[in-house]
Design goal:
By secondary structure, the chain is mainly beta. It is built from five helices and 35 strands.
Amino acid sequence: MNMPVKGSNEAPTCHGGLENLDEEYDYLIDEIEGEIPVDLKGTFVRNGPGRQKIGGVPYGHWFDGDGMLSVFSIADGKARFKNSYVKTPKYIEETAAQKVLYRGFGTQIPGGWWKNAFKLPPSPANTSVIYHAGHLLALNEGGLPWEVDAANLETKGEFTYDGGLFGRTFSAHGKIHPGSGDYINFGSGSIRRGLRPPQPCLNLFRIDQSGKVVASNQAVIDRFPFCHDFALSDHYGIFFIGSIVFGNMSRFLMGLNSISDLIRFDDDLPMKVVVVDLKSLEVVRQFETDAGAIIHFGNAFEDGDEIVVDGMYAGEFEANNALSDVFNPDAKFGGGTYNRYRLNMATGAISSERVTRTESEFPTFNPRYAGKRQTYTYTACAIPNGSDSFFNGFQKIDFEGNSSLVTLPPGYYGSEPMFAPREGASAEDDGYLLEVVYNGFEHKSELHIVRAQEPTDLVGKLHLRHHLPHQFHGLFVPEVLLQ
């Protein structure tokens, strides 16, 4: 790969960060600028597509690359890196054949419609990760979770909570309720009642700290949802059913089109907001607002009769064009608008305001504040600087919208900033932000450790021996999981 020289007038785009990482590594990181704080201890796990090509042929969509966990195990001022693919049948069989054998969200099996007819995409286990009840799960809402051994990253297999998950979908964005410790999640599905045709629904689950499904329900909704995430307050789960819709899915079933081909944004279709009680998992209130979609949510909390919800708003879905053609040099990956919604549970009124003018995505916050009013949120940002084909900065935003914005140098591309508390921390922002950064000049990646109380304070820069393909989501747990 020909890479621009650092210091030249030409800064590399993000696209080198989409190339495969076919190798699996395990080593102690020994090239460090600054230091690894001794009061930072735990495991930082990232998940995302480790490869976007098989046999040199690109998949048809970024969502279809095979899931690869990347783990930074941090303790005593040292960090160990280990990565491992989730060994799904798709990964194993396509690796052996070096060609596309399975359909995906936007990938068709070569050979025509008859090769694709009535074949459903399997989960590539590539979107996010959760550690709950002693289980490390790789997630993708196109299928069931895949369990990975937290001590060595060996793939254990599909995980169903002893058969407690009905349907074949389970969201990549479940939430752990900090009060109860329960894991709340959902999947898109359908339900048939009596002689009526199947109705779209949300399959809802509450899983206790022992890993048992203690409550479940199917909440009927008025359209099949493109529902990637939801918000969690103390008493409610809040689902925004957006204006991204699926077209004639019979064409998908017949093998004529991929799902991505048929998805579109309907400007005339209002967003619906469905509020679910966390105890009963029943719908207790619905709202309607202007057309749009919320791809990722920040925090949510209850304020008297109101539920306050932070979300990244999109007024279209043009991003799907870039996601379907990731190696196009003109493809640009950006964010949305950071909005705050207020839902009045007494009157049914809904209002929204824009929190920051900066194009943002991947909001995170201190998880101890989930479901209650937070002061700080952190987002990845797309900042115009002549080198903005991907997220190239991050910000710390207080509740009033005041932003501390950090822009990466041209040719460097960031990711979801993850908050990690300092050992013994008491203040909300007493800790560090962990961000994987791709260096397009050297085709290598770095882990940046930033002091959360002062985001311009880059405490440590850990240089990997290779690049990490751009990933989606991750987590930090204050435990050292790897053996």
